[in-house]
Amino acid sequence: MSSSLYTTDNPVFSAYLFYCAILVLKVLFMAPLTARQRFSKRIFISPEDTTLTPKAKVKHDDPDIERVRRAHLNDLENIPVFMVAALLYIATNPAYFLAVNLFRIFTIARIIHTFVYAVVVIPQPARALAWGAGYAATIYVAVQVILFSL
Amino acid sequence: MSSSLYTTDNPVFSAYLFYCAILVLKVLFMAPLTARQRFSKRIFISPEDTTLTPKAKVKHDDPDIERVRRAHLNDLENIPVFMVAALLYIATNPAYFLAVNLFRIFTIARIIHTFVYAVVVIPQPARALAWGAGYAATIYVAVQVILFSL
Amino acid sequence: MSSSLYTTDNPVFSAYLFYCAILVLKVLFMAPLTARQRFSKRIFISPEDTTLTPKAKVKHDDPDIERVRRAHLNDLENIPVFMVAALLYIATNPAYFLAVNLFRIFTIARIIHTFVYAVVVIPQPARALAWGAGYAATIYVAVQVILFSL
């Protein structure tokens, strides 16, 4: 019987732990990024949020806030599926070098994506390329899992 | 000590690898589905996206684009939680036949959901039934995990 | 070679199964919470949904429905990343007492978050505190994983 690949004896799993935890913090970081805009503009999402800040109002179309929220939604569209795909990919017992670089590329690409989308707006195709690198890494990993499981 | 169920010696885990990777690709497929609408209508989500396409504009209420985005959001509401629930379900050591068919029903239901919602709009209750099949499968799996862990 | 921590011999993993399955059901519960508002107000999200209910209409800015949807989106922003972070955290072989209480705090915090946001609206900082407890638990878990994997 084969032993589990999901132990820290497996360097691919250890690398996954590291990059995946970085990605968790990266997604969580979208909250203070949104809050910074909301408090500086005093624009909140729900009526009950306006009671603690003077002159606060509810508004759902502020361009700077919606920009951060779109970056956050794009994270939700891309990061959880990568986390799951990469977890499955470990079961295919991939080469360490390849696996680590896929995790690294995805993680860096998603950090760049948020930076060029919602921190300093950089003209396209900056965001498209960052998104595409993460997207391509996820497709590669998912296809490898399917080929392995056939 | 019981050995890990998360190895490819366990046919339920192997089936999970396959269906879960299909679901990852299914969620990723929402991006080209959205892009197809955006480029054909020249309607984009952020101002910087309009510079590469002539006559492009920003608009957030196009019915065809918003339809694809709603299907995508519905995926995010349902697919990651199923992926996690099914991963936990493997630990309950379920019967192979039952587990594989739950994975299969969920996967097919979600593909049909997107098709009837955002590719060819089919009257209700088509979408409600597709959504409900995936929803019921997720509840069943989650409840089995809770009963097992008590 | 170390044996897998992802078996029910590990009480931390068993606790994870329980709390994570509760969280899955908690996220799924947002759907009937939204549907209850939609059917009582006869306000639906897509044109094809209005054919089965008399006097139904499409509207995207009803405050009560959008409130439930914001609570749902906040779940998607916070719960899947916690589920993944906690899964990784198990690999660090944490003390049972600490791990179980982190899972418990997160789960209870998210249930309270939905209650004060979308069931009975309770003035701030109720929602901020519930959100913050879950957020802090996720950061703690993710940072522990990073420190462990260095």
Layout: helices, strands, pairs:
3 copies of one chain form a homotrimer.
Chain A: H1 11-28, H2 30-41, E1 43-44, E2 57-58, H3 63-90, H4 96-119, H5 126-149
Parallel strand pairs in A: 1-2
Helix pairs in contact in A: 1-3, 1-4, 2-3, 3-4, 3-5, 4-5
Question: Which properties best describe this structure?
Answer:
homotrimer, 150 residues, mainly alpha, Four Helix Bundle (Hemerythrin (Met), subunit A), two-stranded parallel ribbon, 2 strands
Mean pLDDT of chain A: 94
Sheet with most strands of chain A: 2 strands, parallel
Oligomeric state, counting identical vs distinct chains = homotrimer
Total DSSP helices of chain A: 5
Question: How far from one another are the termini of chain A?
Answer: 20 Å
Task: Please provide the ordered H/E string of secondary-structure elements of chain A.
Answer: HHEEHHH
Described by the principal axes of the CA atoms, the overall outline of chain A is elongated
Number of strands of chain A: 2
The helical percent of chain A reads over 70%
- Identify the CATH homologous superfamily of the domain at 9-25 and 63-149 in chain A: Membrane associated eicosanoid/glutathione metabolism-like domain
Beta-strand level of the residues of chain A, as a percent range? Answer: under 5%
Low-confidence stretches of chain A: none
* CATH topology type of the domain at 9-25 and 63-149 in chain A: Four Helix Bundle (Hemerythrin (Met), subunit A)
Q: Specify the structural class of chain A.
A: mainly alpha
